[in-house]
Amino acid sequence: MKILTVAKYIDQPAVLSKLHSKMPAVLTGTGAAVWGYETFHKQKDHPHKARKAFKNAVTIASAAGASFVGVRGLKIGGKTIFKGLMEYTPIEKVLKNQAQAIDKFLSARNLDDETLEKTLKNAKNRKFSLSDIDIISDRLPKDKKSKEFLHEILPEPENLSSKEIFGEIKRLSLIGLIPVAGGVAGGITSDIITGTGSQKKTANKVKEGVYQYLANIFLCNVGAGAALFASEKMTARKLIKPLTPVKKLGVILAGITATGIIGGSIIANYISKKCIDPLFGKKHSKNENIYSERKPEPLDIALHADDIATAGVLSGFKWIEPALPIMYFISGYRAGIGYRNNNQQS
Question: Any transmembrane segments, and where (predicted)?
């Protein structure tokens, strides 16, 4: 089986629509799993279990709800309050558009290939199978109209320009910011409701929000965009050959590693110590280590899996995009509990 066939299969509009439609259920399930683990396993010996369970529920609901609203938008009384940051086309509309495109193509062409014609007719009202894609890709005529039709039903990965790259970075960074802000708001709200808040806890939530957003989301996106922008300029000057989607993925991951993973935690901790702590009346020793409160942990490294998703989106692969709200939700939750390594101040 060809790798290109598999890539076209998972990036076809019908599969993308189904992945997007399952995202809310997966996000809800992830939130429930985190709540169960944090409430009944990780903190089973907590002296105030019921209160902790409630606070976890409020924080998780806020982070997950914000993550969902960020990608799908918010409507109240039929009025759009906020437009979602991810495109979602219901499967019914996708299949209708697919059927119309196939009918239009077949009505304008007399195909000599019965196998190709039968494959197209059979696939009008369902997603394309791997064998369908093989047949269509291999047997479809190579003229301009046929290529346009193929791109319509099985789009190629988008080759983003530098302007489009930074537009995507802005969108992806907002998708990450919203659940982090939601988690912080939910954590502070749970403290207020239960009467357990303090200046220190609020400061920790804000600092962890800054850490999660800068170290795990924003600076990684900036690194990815900067690497792509540089490679595009080098290609324009003919210093390097045009990048294939796979090579582009490698360039993006290199940029993410340099800017986000290595520099992100240092910058986030510096901002926390120099800007956030003074707002809450906390002073630091001049000789205090930059990682004295928050250093990268294995889970932080694991959370950089969303960078692979980001790299995929910027490389033109859309199928991985529905996973981003779930990954960013975890960052939102950790911000909401004011996580400071092994000491959960919330």
Answer: 172-190, 210-230, 251-271
For CA atoms 213, 215, 218, 221, give the dihedral sign: negative
**Which tens digit of pLDDT belongs to each residue from 81-139?**
999 999 899 999 999 999 999 999 999 988 889 999 999 999 999 999 999 999 999 99
Q: Which of 180, 213, 210, 196 is nearest to 346 (CA)?
A: 196
Q: Same domain, yes or no, for 128 and 271? A: no
d(CA 58, CA 34): 12
Q: 166 with 302, same domain?
A: yes
Burial group, residue 89, by CB count within 10 angstroms (0-12, 13-18, 19+): middle
- The tokens for 220 are 């990684």
Q: Tell me, what's the pLDDT at 89?
A: 93
Which pTM was predicted? 0.85
Q: What tokens does 173 get?
A: 């960074």
CA distance 165 to 151: 21
Contact 326, 303 (CB under 8 A): no
Structural domains counted in the chain: 2
Residues 66 and 111 in one domain: no
Q: How many CB atoms are closer than 10 A to CB 139?
A: 14
- Judge if 213 and 139 occupy the same domain: no
Q: How many CB atoms lie within 10 A of CB 5?
A: 18
